[in-house]
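Quick illustration, no need to memorize.
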Amino acid sequence: MNAPIDCDFLIVGGGPTGITLGLLLARGGVKTLVIDKAAEIYPLPRAAHIDHEIMRIFQELGVADKIAATCRTSERYDFLNAKGDILLRFEGMDRIGPGGWPASNMIHQPSVEAILRAAAEEQANLQLKTQWNWTAFTNEGGTVVSSIVTPQGERQIRSRFVIGADGARSPVRTAAEIEMDDLGFDEQWLVIDTLVQDFERLPKINLQICDPARPTTCVLMGSGRHRWEFMLKPDETAEQFLDDDFIAALLKPWNIDGAVTLERKAIYRFNAKVAKTWRKGPLLLAGDAAHLTPPFAGQGLCAGLRDAANLAWKLIAVFHGANEALLDTYQSEREAHVRPIIALAIMMGRTVCIADPAAAAARDKQMLAARATGSSPDGSVQSPPLGNGFLMAGAPYAGTYFPQFIAEAERLDDVLGQGAWLIAKMPPKEEVKAGLQAVALDDLRLHAFRAPLEQWLAKHGAEAVLVRPDRYIFGTGTPDVLAQSWYNR
């Protein structure tokens, strides 16, 4: 007889992606263990941005307001050449996005992680163990046996699945012998994080300075911080760049003496890679273990948290008896979404990282001409649809994001709650089964939302929409057909 399992799901990596996935699973009634090799939250900033979709995920976890209180917003994201001309502009970053929160939120990652871990302590189905280092696994008749080094010695944990949310050097990915697809972007940058004493002396918007003499990033952050990034050239060394006098010279043109103090300096390699396989049997990858995104679109952490939202409801469904083949839709849906985001970040990075003056001049000429003729890709960062997966085949708008409406200071998600929704002009003729909430527009709970929902359905030519737990659209059509398709997938 097989030994009993210790947990249904073991998540390796207690960063934002791992903790968020753990919280989503625990809220779905699933016994989950998250382990992390570090003793504490890494105290210095890393990611600097999350978007409206991620804030909506945090809303589901009950922590969005706390996280929003630590964020700052920027109206624009400008790409400027050495003369200060606008090459590319993304506007409306401070407006409310489709997820019902500001489109762009500048964060201090340790503050976000602290809020998520505090929420984890309140979840009876979730355990977090620190200083637990995952080293290897075996598969014993459908149970994954993980070898883990702890402060008390080595031990084994038995689980149904292991999810590697363990970063770019993922031990889980390595143990599963999963290769990465290198997308051909590799640049070294110095990242400088500062504590701000005088915000009035700092830029109020996010900037990419496309100067061949020194490509530079300057962005807001949360919790009273600001960031600069400077690209290293081939003949420059990390040791040279980390020298305080060298850093002072890099910052001198910004005239910020006395306005900020240095908190962190670090050299990073900005890469673009995607794991060739995101699932090998009971092992799955999420976040940086599955994909690496250059930082120029601010979507690296966002991608990991979208992974968590996509994967969580499917793992919960499998826990409750759904076919494990459902988990194969995770990669097909998410990879088709994340690759265009990575491509956008690479495009932005290649725009910024030109160090040859002649090439930079040609870039400037082309991009300025495009802006003059209205053909520049200015605007806002758009979220691509999901790839093929657990979607209603052939249904209009399947795989696109369903907006969260706000009415009378209420958000739709808070009214309808967790799980999948079938929102219809009229209720379905057949009673829906467990796991799908059917709600007609005349439902009293939707009183404040009726007008925008009616407008949305009319605009999309649909009697009803079925919204998945991750708030992507399963399909549009008639309520009974949608419900039957949902059950039969």
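The longest helix spans residues 328-352.
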